[in-house]
Amino acid sequence: xxxxxxxxxxxxxxxxxxxxxxxxxxxxxxxxxxxxxxxxxxxxxxxxxxxxxxxxxxxxxxxxxxxxxxxxxxxxxxxxxxxxxxxxxxxxxxxxxxxxxxxxxxxxxxxxxxxxxxxxxxxxxxxxxxxxxxxxxxxxxxxxxxxxxxxxxxxxxxxxxxxxxxxxxxxxxxxxxxxxxxxxxxxxxxxxxxxxxxxxxxxxxxxxxxxxxxxxxxxxxxxxxxxxxxxxxxxxxxxxxxxxxxxxxxxxxxxxxxxxxxxxxxxxxxxxxxxxxxxxxxxxxxxxxxxxxxxxxxxxxxxxxxxxxxxxxxxxxxxxxxxxxxxxxxx
Length: 331
What we know:
alpha+beta; 8-stranded mixed beta sheet; 7 helices; Metallo-beta-lactamase, Chain A
């Protein structure tokens, strides 16, 4: 695919597992201040979920253009709204919402977000994100995962667009009527389902799906709706943005390089799902392959976990950047 270059990207973490009020700003990342007007400022909250705002800037016909997207909506109903208020972010400026997949820690703030936006807005999502899913543990414990509710989304002003294969991100204008936009933004790729080529990235083995009812569960470890965003920053290389990375961060990188024919990886940012029993075992191979891919920067968020992050710090010195809620990465 002919992915057009962008001049820059700003990525602001709205929801993540970590917040650290003491992190200093740098030329690459702006941290929210601890002190404002001689007082300790109100800080954002952390939770086991993920959401970011992506703003891209590019030049078109000698004019600088900008687009702003929301990628995922966190795990709680109001966490994303709370943090956007604390950080002074106007959610109504968002043009399109993209969901990385249908798990509860990425979708639960969607309705509150739509109500705050107060205008029709497109939601890009893989069709399998609407499956009825369960967590089933080896000891027999199980729990139904929260679902995306199409009716609620539509009533709250969402315009659902289901995309099941790689494509450029559909571009919606601020004024959307009930028909779908036919315009596309050739500067952002949404991967759709990502091919699985490694033998150590196992998806999500705890996941089952309902066939007919809750008594008829079948293994569904691949999380086929897991998708990522890809951008190409001029003179720097690819930015790859993941939600949980259930497809595997190495699979995702390999796919991004293949479809764009760009070899240089500038930054990999998002969840790599390497935390917890059944996933930590793949950390050594994953970090070894990540080191071979040689991104300039790695920002391991959300479900990556402390052990994997620590391994990145040790094995890839100078490449790790600490994520924290409220941080804005300027690439």
